[in-house]
């Protein structure tokens, strides 16, 4: 007979998307919970920043309609404030804008006929290609052919992840590479469109989702400025947390959204050195962004612009106003320029003024902005933005997960905690499933 676990408390650590989603579902089920966040506000890397009359996200966040239940939940949460965005994204290639997700009809207009013929031949051969997919590079060639891979994807991916694509796991794609093949070419000529180019977005920024969740749950259950400095365990159970190196609290059930490498190093007693050595091999890619405010109505007509050229020091520009007109004044706009970095990179550690000037000078040189249109600029660092999923790390995580699973009352949820390339809908689905499980115990 199952025990009624409703009198037990759920402790949630981390106030980013995974922690807040878990708190939201726990609150809906009437379960006792508490959420601990080390910073002075919740939202993690999904916060929307308000600056003067502008709003912008720390990254080009979007909500994809991939899970019917989660989409329905977010629609009910935001009501009319959740908008369907159909603004296209583009790839900047030799001064031309290529539609993204890649569409064959668009390539016909933009590329030389000899390149188009190669693409057609490669995608035709791919129907009969039975080669095993062992890397991200294999996946891209299987989906797009080697020409598309070299033109648009390999260089971009190497800039984004800091690794050659032959070393990256196929799982790093996040399910995005599924548009261009011989069948999609036929569908395009029949007038069908890619739904991948559409996404939902909140009127006042992506952080609005998590602000609404904070409003829904009881704020006296959220403890800010509460950094977890130790996680105590005994007999394969987590039994206590240490906050800010001082306060110790008991734990019944734990939902942990902290990065797996951080968690591994604060478990007490210390976990076996062989596991810690494996954890040390895991790497996250950081982001450094420049937000540039412009004295112009719009920078472009595109939600995001991708830059695969290896000689360009950034990977993506997104314009918040192309997601929602509410994010900038009518006659002004801003752009967010993303630069993936490792923690030790010179660009990541350079003074903010040096970093901003370097990026702005690149944009001026490419004639993407005009100096007299710049109002001002800001820069932010976003640590642990993406787990770098190499094939080696996928194998390492199997060993780490086997060890972590021994803690019967701890569930790891989130991109950093699970070391997976997860989207918001993935995280919400995992959170609701686990809360449902706990509510039935």
Give the tally of β-strands. Answer: 20
Spatial order of strands in the largest sheet = 7-6-16-17-18-15-19
The amount of helix comes to 25-40%
Q: What's the CATH C level of the largest domain?
A: Alpha Beta
- The CATH topology assignment of the largest domain is FAD/NAD(P)-binding domain
Radius of gyration: 23 Å
Shape descriptor: globular
The largest sheet, given as strand count, sense and whether it forms a barrel, is: 7 strands, mixed
Global mean pLDDT: 90
Instruction: Give me the number of helical elements.
Output: 15
Estimate the strand proportion.
15-25%
Report the uncertain regions: 1-5, 185-196
End-to-end Cα distance: 9 Å
Structural class: alpha/beta
What would CATH call the homologous superfamily of the largest domain?
FAD/NAD(P)-binding domain
CATH architecture heading of the largest domain: 3-Layer(bba) Sandwich
Written account of the structure:
The chain is α/β, with parallel strands linked by helices and about 450 residues long. The protein has 3 domains: about 10-45 and about 205-280 and about 390-440, FAD/NAD(P)-binding domain; about 100-195, protoporphyrinogen ix oxidase, domain 3; about 285-385, Protoporphyrinogen oxidase, mitochondrial, domain 2 (Polyamine Oxidase, Chain A, domain 2, Alpha-Beta Complex), CATH 3.90.660. It contains 15 helices and 20 strands. The strands form 5 sheets. A 7-stranded mixed sheet has the order 7-6-16-17-18-15-19. Helix 1 (about 15-30) runs parallel beside helix 8, helix 4 crosses helix 5 (about 135-145) and helix 5 (about 135-145) runs antiparallel to helix 6 (about 145-160). The longest helix has 17 residues, at about 425-440. It is globular, with a radius of gyration of 23 Å. The model is unreliable at about 1-5 and about 185-195 (pLDDT under 50).
């Amino acid at each position: 007979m199952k025990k009624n676990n409703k009198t037990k408390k759920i402790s949630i650590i981390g106030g980013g998307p995974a922690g807040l989603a878990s708190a939201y579902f726990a609150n809906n089920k009437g379960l006792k919970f508490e959420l601990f966040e080390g910073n002075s506000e919740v939202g993690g890397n999904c916060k929307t920043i308000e600056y003067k009359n502008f709003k912008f996200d720390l990254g080009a966040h979007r909500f994809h309609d991939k899970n019917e239940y989660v989409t329905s939940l977010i629609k009910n949460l935001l009501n009319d404030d959740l908008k369907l965005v159909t603004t296209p994204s583009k790839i900047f290639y030799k001064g031309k804008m290529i539609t993204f997700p890649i569409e064959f009809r668009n390539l016909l207009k933009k590329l030389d006929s000899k390149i188009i013929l190669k693409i057609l031949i490669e995608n035709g051969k791919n129907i009969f290609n039975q080669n095993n997919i062992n890397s991200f590079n294999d996946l891209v060639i299987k989906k797009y052919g080697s020409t598309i891979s070299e033109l648009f994807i390999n260089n971009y991916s190497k800039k984004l992840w800091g690794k050659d694509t032959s070393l990256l796991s196929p799982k790093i794609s996040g399910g995005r590479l599924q548009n261009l093949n011989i069948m999609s070419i036929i569908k395009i000529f029949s007038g069908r469109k890619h739904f991948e180019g559409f996404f939902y977005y909140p009127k006042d920024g992506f952080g609005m989702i998590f602000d609404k969740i904070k409003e829904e749950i009881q704020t006296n259950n959220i403890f800010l400025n509460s950094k977890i400095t130790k996680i105590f365990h005994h007999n394969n159970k987590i039994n206590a947390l240490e906050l800010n190196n001082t306060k110790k609290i008991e734990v019944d059930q734990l939902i942990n959204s902290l990065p797996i490498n951080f968690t591994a190093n604060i478990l007490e007693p210390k976990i076996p050195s062989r596991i810690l050595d494996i954890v040390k091999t895991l790497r996250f890619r950081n982001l450094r962004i420049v937000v540039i405010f412009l004295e112009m109505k719009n920078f472009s007509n595109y939600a995001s612009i991708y830059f695969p050229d290896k000689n360009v020091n950034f990977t993506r520009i997104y314009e918040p106003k192309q997601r929602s007109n509410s994010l900038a004044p009518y006659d002004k706009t801003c752009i967010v320029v993303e630069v993936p970095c490792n923690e030790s990179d010179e660009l990541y550690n350079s003074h903010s003024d040096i970093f901003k000037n370097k990026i702005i000078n690149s944009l001026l040189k490419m004639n993407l902005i005009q100096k007299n249109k710049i109002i001002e600029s800001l820069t932010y660092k976003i640590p642990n933005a993406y787990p770098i999923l190499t094939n080696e790390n996928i194998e390492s995580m199997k060993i780490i997960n086997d060890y972590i699973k021994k803690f019967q009352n701890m569930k790891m949820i989130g991109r950093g905690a699970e070391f997976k390339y997860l989207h918001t809908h993935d995280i919400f689905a995992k959170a609701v499933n686990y809360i449902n499980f706990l509510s039935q115990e």
